[in-house]
Design a protein that fits this description.
Largest sheet: 2 strands, antiparallel
Number of domains: 1
Structural class: mainly alpha
Shape: globular
Length: about 425
Amino acid sequence: MIDPVIFAQMGASQLDPSTTVFVIGTVVKMIVIFTIYMVGVAYSTFAERRVSAWIQDRHGPNRVGPQGLLQVAADGIKNIMKEETYPGYASKALFILAPGLAFVPAMITWAVIPFGSPLPTPWGRIDLVVADLPVGFLFTLAISSLGVYGIVLAGWSSNNKYALLGGLRSSAQMVSYEIAMGMSTVCVLLLAGNVSLNQVIAQQAHMGWNALLLTVAAFIFLVAAFAETNRVPFDLPEAESELIAGYHTEYSAMKFSMFPISEYANMITASAMMATLFFGGWDIPFTQWDNSGPHTVLKSILTFGSFATKVLFFVFFYIWIRWTLPRFRYDQLMSLGWKILLPIALIYVVVVASAVLALDASGVARGPMFGAVLFGINVVLMGVILFVLDRGRLISPAYSRLESVGVARLKNASKGRSTLNPAADKGA
């Protein structure tokens, strides 16, 4: 081990230049990426309000600044200036800690997500990822699962029955859907042969997007991501009509704002993971120009634009779904996770593993032909799931348990009552 005093006396010229460039580049990437991330999280709230207004034929926020762009700053100042209140019997330490625990995991997950092709500099190549971990994929699953602790602690420490119910709902919901999400991503690892996210992107650049090769896995991951982020139609932990505001009922001022901020941060992180795992990440579709050397600044800029476009599309999709679908009942939520998604994910892993093993044994190279076979298998499986097993009903408990004969019997009975009492029909 180098003595700290000797190390401090060492000049910059005595250090390894590659190490110096790596440290400086990492610090710069941290500052730039997390600044963009925080600004994006703030303006995603503005985007939600404007998109919802557009869907409902309203104007939305448009008075503070040009086109309402300063509304985010106004809301932030308002929340900071508000009075902080604490419940009389709350566990104060955990009550204060919970909002930070809900937000930090979503932000840390971004550290391993690649957002562009390597950037050439006079001092060497700099990878456009804050921390290019060889186990980046496992890191995202491990860290993202910690966000539930903030929500559970918020519900328990508030000493409020509605907040506690919201925290319990959230923990049950996340546990239920994390299993299906993890099983769906096993198929991605089967194709990539590695847990590095850069390798996952390289595999898709060579074979095609996993959204086409692993359509069932992409669908399961997308549904589970909605549940993991507590977004509509899975916003049961904060169901206003049932639990007032759920786990953040007792929060106020900026601590209250941290929970919506963490929700939008998780939404952006989930969008980035969806783009990386199933839609090629920063890879520009329909061309190999960005994947072949030499690396240039133009390639880095365009690949970053491609990644940002994909992430913004999924953020818009999140918002679109919120203002389109109603909230599920809690029994529907649990039924979808345990009775539908999990069995499908387990069976799908076996099917994909068998197909990959058979194709490798047949000597089919990992390329367009390999991808075409997987695409055909997924078309058949999606047809079976949507038209045979589901029979037009996405979630089993959401439909009436009466068969068509029972529905017809009820219609005939109501028609008979109308015939016996025509005066009542006229009065109605």
